[in-house]
Design goal:
- By secondary structure, this protein is α+β, with helices and mostly antiparallel strands.
- The protein contains four helices and 14 strands.
- Among the domains are: 7-36, no CATH class; 39-102, no CATH class; 138-173, no CATH class; 217-249, no CATH class.
- Helices cover 15% and strands 22% of the residues.
- The strands form six sheets. Strands 3-4-7-8 form a four-stranded mixed sheet, with no helix packed on it. Strands 1-2 form a two-stranded antiparallel sheet. The protein has a two-stranded antiparallel sheet with strand order 5-6.
- The longest helix has 14 residues, at 164-177.
- 5% of the residues are buried.
């Protein structure tokens, strides 16, 4: 239900016998309208006496433009503020008493600046809304990394790192095959005999003989050895000790 101008309120006086009185809504509205209002006059250096307005009115409000704390220099009124005034503090003129000051809190008001140490980065393009980021790790600089999946490990994906579990699995798989020969076989004349263990088999080759492929030794070309049946001759040996069957290939006299 909306109030009407003729509606009355009951109020109590704070002086005298403190009796109850009636007050119409119209009277209350007129009282509020006639009360002194606050008038913002702008900014001024409140540490300079020369900046004080010559004729201040009740409710005049100024904001201190000084960039450093200083002594309040305005003296208008019977009981003006005395003391230090902070940057951005406010002063309001109260009739008779004079200038009254409200200093801003000097306590910690919160975060004033955000800084980062690499690999943390700060984008301060908008000072009130800094964006915090982090660089990716490289072979030369530290930063954030992406953990590899098992598929990444199998595929050798670049730019990801393995976990301790993935590295252990890989090492275990390598250890299962490291240094162990499961099976070695040879084709004649190569032969294989067991060594001291399955990891050290001995590989051999047979000597050559009639109808047997194998290793041979070369005959010495320093003397004729017509009875030697276990070494192989060389073209030089034949040229030195035997006559060419085709005389036409001999050098002319």
């Amino acid at each position: 239900m909306a109030l009407e101008a003729a509606d009355v309120l009951v109020v109590q006086k704070v002086t005298g016998a403190q009796e109850n009185r009636k007050l119409s809504v119209q009277q209350l509205a007129e009282f509020i309208q006639s009360s002194n209002a606050v008038t913002f006059k702008g900014v001024a250096d409140l540490t300079l006496a020369s900046a004080e307005p010559a004729s201040a009115q009740n409710g005049d409000l100024y904001v201190n433009s000084a960039t450093a704390p200083g002594a309040f220099a305005w003296t208008g009124g019977t009981n003006p503020y005395t003391g230090t005034i902070q940057p951005n503090a406010q002063t309001i003129y109260v009739t008779t008493a004079g200038w009254q000051v409200t200093n801003n809190s000097t306590s910690n008001l919160g975060v004033e600046q955000v800084q980062g140490t690499l690999p943390i980065t700060i984008d301060g393009t908008v000072a009130a809304k800094p964006i915090v980021g982090v660089n990716e790790a490289t072979t030369l600089t530290s930063g954030v990394v992406t953990i590899a999946t098992d598929n990444d490990v199998a595929a050798g994906t670049q730019g990801v790192v393995v976990t301790a579990v993935q590295l252990k699995d890989t090492n275990d798989n390598l250890a299962a095959f490291e240094g162990t020969v499961l099976s070695v076989s040879g084709v004649d004349p190569i032969g294989v005999t067991p060594g001291t263990s399955t990891s050290t088999p001995e590989i051999t080759i047979k000597d050559s003989a009639v109808s047997q492929r194998g290793a041979v030794a070369l005959i010495s070309d320093s003397a004729v050895s017509a009875s030697n049946a276990t070494t192989a001759t060389t073209p030089k040996y034949v040229a030195d000790f035997y006559l060419n069957q085709n005389f036409n290939q001999l050098t002319d006299a």
